[in-house]
């Protein structure tokens, strides 16, 4: 939500993680989030995308106050970033 160009709150953030159970444990135990929903999704069409072999996506939606975070993990794992990559999401 934004008013006059200023962000007042963030309702939802999504992060792709390598280890869903470990990430969930951290956000719940260390930061106080609670689990709202867990789901598994399959989309065979994903396997048709170049360089994508993932056919299973697991998600866990967490909440603290009014803020929500969705953790997402793919199976099989995706390829790692190339060495020397400056991606901001590492």
Keywords:
mainly beta, 2,3-Dihydroxybiphenyl 1,2-Dioxygenase, domain 1, four-stranded mixed β-sheet, two-stranded antiparallel ribbon, 1 helix, 6 strands, 39% strand
Note down, in words, how this protein is organized:
By secondary structure, the chain is mostly beta strands. It has one domain (11-75): 2,3-Dihydroxybiphenyl 1,2-Dioxygenase, domain 1 (Roll), CATH 3.10.180. Helix content is 11%, strand content 39%. It has one helix and six strands, in the order βββαβββ. It has one helix at residues 20-29, and strands at 2-3, 6-7, 12-16, 34-41, 56-64, 67-75. The strands form two sheets. The chain has a four-stranded mixed β-sheet, covered by helices on one side. The model has no long low-confidence stretch (mean pLDDT 82).
- The secondary structure category is mainly beta
Strand order of the largest sheet: 3-6-5-4
| Overall CATH class | Alpha Beta
State the CATH topology.
2,3-Dihydroxybiphenyl 1,2-Dioxygenase, domain 1
State the end-to-end CA separation.
26 Å
> Overall pLDDT, averaged?
82
Biggest beta sheet summary: 4 strands, mixed
Integer tally of domains: 1
Order of helices and strands: EEEHEEE
> What portion of residues belong to β-strands?
35-45%
Q: How would you describe the shape?
A: globular
- Helices, by number, come to 1
Contiguous low-pLDDT stretches (5 residues minimum) are none
CATH superfamily: 2,3-Dihydroxybiphenyl 1,2-Dioxygenase, domain 1
Helicity, as a percent range: 10-25%
Rg estimate, integer Å: 16 Å
Under the CATH scheme, the architecture is: Roll
């Amino acid at each position: 939500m934004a008013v006059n160009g200023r962000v007042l709150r963030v309702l939802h953030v999504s992060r792709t993680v390598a280890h869903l159970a470990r990430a969930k444990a951290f956000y719940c135990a260390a930061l106080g989030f609670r689990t709202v929903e867990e789901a598994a999704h399959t989309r065979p069409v994903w396997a048709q995308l170049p360089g994508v072999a993932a056919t299973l996506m697991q998600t866990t939606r967490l909440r603290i106050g009014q803020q929500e975070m969705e953790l997402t993990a793919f199976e099989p794992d995706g390829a790692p970033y190339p060495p020397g990559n400056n991606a901001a999401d590492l």
